[in-house]
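for the recovery benchmark. tokens below, seq after
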């Protein structure tokens, strides 16, 4: 019954004017409209960043080369200005991922340029994620039996019945692979990792990612090295966090959101 409710909820989703897809090296509107968003600049930077020698994320490379990604443009990260559009676009993305069964389809949410520190970026990231759902939506957004307590290391962000691993990018990230001129959040569905495991590809891909990260950065990401798959949310921002770190996600009441 739960999955039927989720499918019903997402089946009517359509993209907003903020959402784009790759075509011939450019980003084009899902609505086939002209736009003032910086699509050419972002498309060029995605290519430049992901095609660097030894770029560590193999899944991101496959997503890029297969044109299996979507890009959305929104306001200031964490401000709550565009959470409705972002939520709708993410639900549309989930609908597309289920329809295509793509293992590598990813969603890039790109925000207005700001001069974040690693700490302020992490705070803004979790504010944005908190806006995307609500206390009232918790039952529908999180899969049955999943952990919804942010203080639990097993907590994963979820929307529309699917859990996500999120990669934060910004201009001052200490991790070279997470440097990007604009703040961005890359959403990856955990079901895709499960599919890779069933195909026997996941562990090999993780090992390759870590080898490439060592060459690319000169040292492996300490958060990945220490926590791996045991504590995902601490890794979202890319910041090196202490063991005392507490997940800043909060379930908000709908009435308390802008």
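predicted aa per position
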């Amino acid at each position: 019954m739960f999955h039927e409710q989720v499918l019903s909820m997402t089946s009517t989703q359509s993209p907003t004017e903020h959402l784009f897809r790759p075509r011939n090296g450019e980003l084009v509107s899902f609505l086939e409209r002209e736009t003032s968003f910086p699509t050419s600049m972002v498309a060029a930077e995605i290519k430049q960043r992901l095609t660097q020698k030894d770029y560590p994320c193999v899944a991101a490379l496959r997503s890029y080369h297969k044109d299996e990604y979507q890009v959305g443009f929104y306001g200031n990260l964490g401000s709550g200005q565009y959470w409705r559009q972002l939520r709708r676009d993410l639900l549309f993305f989930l609908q597309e991922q289920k329809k295509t069964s793509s293992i590598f389809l990813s969603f890039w949410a790109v925000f207005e340029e700001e001069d974040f520190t690693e700490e302020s970026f992490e705070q803004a990231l979790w504010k944005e994620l908190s806006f995307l759902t609500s206390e009232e939506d918790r039952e529908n957004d999180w899969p049955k039996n999943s952990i919804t307590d942010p203080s639990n290391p097993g907590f994963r962000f979820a929307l529309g019945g699917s859990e996500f691993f999120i990669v934060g990018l910004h201009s001052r990230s200490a991790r070279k692979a997470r440097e990007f001129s604009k703040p961005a959040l890359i959403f990856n569905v955990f079901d895709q990792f499960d599919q890779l495991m069933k195909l026997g590809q996941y562990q090999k891909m993780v090992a390759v990612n870590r080898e490439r990260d060592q060459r690319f950065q000169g040292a492996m990401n300490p958060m990945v090295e220490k926590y791996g798959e045991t504590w995902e949310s601490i890794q979202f921002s890319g910041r090196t966090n202490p063991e005392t770190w507490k997940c800043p996600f909060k379930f908000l009441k709908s009435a308390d959101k802008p």
